[in-house]
Design goal:
Elements: H1 8-13, H2 15-34, H3 42-71, H4 76-105, H5 117-186, H6 192-208, H7 217-222
Helix pairs in contact: 2-3, 3-4, 3-5, 4-5, 5-6
C-alpha cells in the first residue's frame, strides 16, 4: 500500500484548512479585543465564541448563497436587498444570543452586551467585506490558473499536431528523394553526390533543428 505524500502547496490550497485558519485568527483577534485583563478568563473565551455565531451565519450565507445565486448572476438589486436583510438578521442573532441564549446555555456566567446596534453593524459589515474580497480573489486566481492551463494544453496540442505532420511528411519526402536519386544514378548524372549531400543536410535539419521553437532565417535559407 503506497502512502500519498501531501505537498505544502496542497496544504495551502486546502479549503477547509483556509477556513479554519481564518476563524482561529478571527477568534484570537476578537478575544484580545474583548479581554480587559491580562489573565485568561473563561468568560472572555465564551463571550468571543458566542459573538462569532452571528458573524459566521452572515459570512457563509453571503459567500455560499447570496453571491453565487444573485451577485454572480448579475442580479445586483436582489443581492443588495438580500444582503441588507442578512445584515439585519445577523444583528438580530447577536441580540438574541446575548439577550437569551447565553444565559440559557451558560447559566453560571453573567454576560454584558457591550456593543450597540452600530457597533455590531460595523463588525458584520467588516467581516462581509473581508470574506467577500477573499472569495473574489480566489475566483480570480482560479480563472487565471485555468487560462494558463488552457494555454499550456493548446501549446502541447500544437506541438503534437506539428510532430504528427512531420511524421507524415518525412517518409513521403524521403521516398520521393530516393526515387529521384535512383533515376539520376541510372543516368550517371554528376549531380548525384551533391544532391545526396543536400538530402543529408535536409534530413539533419528535420531531425534536429525543427525541435527548437525558433530558427534563424539565414539557416532556413541555407537549407
Amino acid at each position: 500500500m503506497q502512502t500519498k505524500i501531501i505537498t505544502f502547496e496542497e496544504v495551502v490550497r486546502n479549503r477547509w484548512l483556509q477556513h479554519c485558519l481564518f476563524w482561529i485568527l478571527s477568534f484570537y483577534i476578537l478575544w484580545r479585543l474583548f479581554t480587559y485583563s491580562e489573565e485568561v478568563e473563561w468568560v472572555d473565551i465564551i463571550y468571543t465564541f458566542l459573538f462569532h455565531w452571528a458573524i459566521i451565519f452572515v459570512v457563509y450565507t453571503n459567500i455560499q448563497l447570496l453571491i453565487p445565486k444573485f451577485l454572480e448572476k448579475k442580479k445586483y438589486w436582489t443581492y443588495i436587498f438580500s444582503l441588507i436583510g442578512l445584515i439585519l438578521s445577523g444583528i438580530a442573532i447577536n441580540a438574541i444570543t446575548f439577550g437569551w441564549l447565553a444565559d440559557l446555555i451558560f447559566p453560571n456566567y453573567y454576560f454584558i452586551d457591550y456593543y450597540d446596534f452600530s457597533d455590531i453593524l460595523e463588525f458584520i459589515v467588516s467581516y462581509l467585506l473581508i470574506t467577500s474580497l477573499f472569495k473574489f480573489s480566489k475566483g480570480w486566481f482560479r480563472q487565471l490558473e485555468a487560462k494558463q492551463k488552457i494555454g499550456i494544453l493548446e501549446k502541447e496540442k500544437t506541438v503534437a499536431e506539428l510532430n504528427a505532420l512531420k511524421t507524415q511528411i518525412n517518409p513521403h519526402f524521403l521516398f520521393n528523394s530516393l526515387n529521384n536519386l535512383y533515376s539520376l544514378s541510372l543516368d550517371n548524372d554528376k549531380r548525384t553526390p551533391r544532391i545526396i549531400l543536400r538530402l543529408s543536410e535536409m534530413m539533419r535539419y528535420l531531425l534536429y533543428e525543427t525541435e527548437v521553437q525558433k530558427v534563424s532565417l539565414q539557416k532556413k535559407l541555407n537549407i
